[in-house]
């Protein structure tokens, strides 16, 4: 467990991978955002065509922003501009793409990245000064527990690098504890919150309670 004295309470990030189109998806996300602290929402195509993804984002971005969360678009700069998103996420683990995206859009937009699975790759990405690095992959939360390699990378990064990181939790809401204990500034949840619209609000409440418990145990 991460026990640094300068531990900062992590905040939640939601990833829309399992969210359906239309009002069903909007209702689930609305319930989640209204249930407790959510710092940002990363919207990703999840197999949608560019036009379908833009329609999906146009429907959700204003709502996300109304709840005070940052709306971040993954891998589609045109969509991000058209829907007036708050940020861009580069998921391919490619340094050149990250460098280009930083040059074009930072600091006007939040720019973060994922796909850097080796330490030297992550450090090279960090030299581009993104707003965050994300350890994990969209749709990768297929197990109840968080991925051990993602947890290890997040704990290592949080200990030595000032740039914030996000670590992906697992399919079960209790995986929030594993992720929070790394010391990462943000815990990303996807299926754990959004796979079942009927429980989305309750899962955000539970995730924040787990994070609070971790923060209290570190402070004790």
Describe the structure in your own words.
The chain has 220 residues and is an alpha/beta fold. The chain has a single domain (11-219), classed as TIM Barrel. It has helices at 22-33, 50-66, 77-82, 95-105, 119-126, 148-160, 175-180, 191-194, 200-219, and strands at 11-15, 40-43, 70-74, 87-90, 110-114, 132-135, 165-168, 186-189. The longest helix is centred in the last third of the chain and has 20 residues, at 200-219. It is globular. The mean pLDDT is 95.
CATH topology: TIM Barrel
Across the major sheet, the strand order is 1-2-3-4-5-6-7-8
State the domain count.
1
Overall number of strands: 8
Task: Indicate the radius of gyration in whole angstroms.
Answer: 16 Å
General shape: globular
Largest sheet: 8 strands, parallel, barrel
Quickly name the level 1 CATH class. Answer: Alpha Beta
Strand residue content? 15-25%
CATH architecture: Alpha-Beta Barrel
Mean pLDDT value: 95
At the fourth CATH level, what is the homologous superfamily?
A: Aldolase class I
Structural class: alpha/beta
Instruction: Classify the helix fraction into a percent range.
Output: 40-55%
Uncertain segments are none
Give the SSE map:
Elements: E1 11-15, H1 22-33, E2 40-43, H2 50-66, E3 70-74, H3 77-82, E4 87-90, H4 95-105, E5 110-114, H5 119-126, E6 132-135, H6 148-160, E7 165-168, H7 175-180, E8 186-189, H8 191-194, H9 200-219
Parallel strand pairs: 1-2, 1-8, 2-3, 3-4, 4-5, 5-6, 6-7, 7-8
């Amino acid at each position: 467990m991460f026990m640094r004295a300068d531990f900062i309470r992590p905040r939640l990030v939601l990833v829309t991978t399992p969210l359906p189109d239309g009002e069903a998806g909007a209702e689930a996300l609305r319930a989640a955002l209204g249930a407790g602290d959510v710092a940002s929402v990363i919207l990703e195509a999840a197999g949608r065509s560019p036009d379908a993804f833009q329609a999906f984002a146009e429907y959700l971005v204003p709502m996300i922003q109304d709840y005070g969360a940052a709306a971040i678009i993954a891998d589609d700069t045109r969509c991000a501009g058209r829907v007036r998103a708050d940020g861009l996420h580069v998921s391919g683990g490619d340094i050149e793409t990250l460098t280009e995206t930083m040059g074009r859009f930072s600091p006007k937009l939040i720019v973060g990245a994922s796909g850097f699975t080796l330490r030297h790759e992550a450090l090279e990405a960090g030299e581009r000064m993104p707003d965050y690095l994300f350890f994990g992959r969209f749709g990768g939360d297929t197990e109840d527990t968080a991925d051990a390699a993602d947890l290890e990378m997040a704990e290592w990064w949080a200990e030595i690098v000032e740039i914030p990181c996000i670590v992906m939790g697992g399919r079960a809401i209790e995986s929030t504890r594993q992720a929070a204990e790394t010391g990462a500034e943000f815990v990303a949840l996807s299926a754990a919150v959004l796979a079942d619209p009927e429980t989305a609000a309750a899962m955000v409440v539970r995730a924040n309670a787990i994070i609070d418990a971790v923060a209290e145990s570190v402070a004790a």
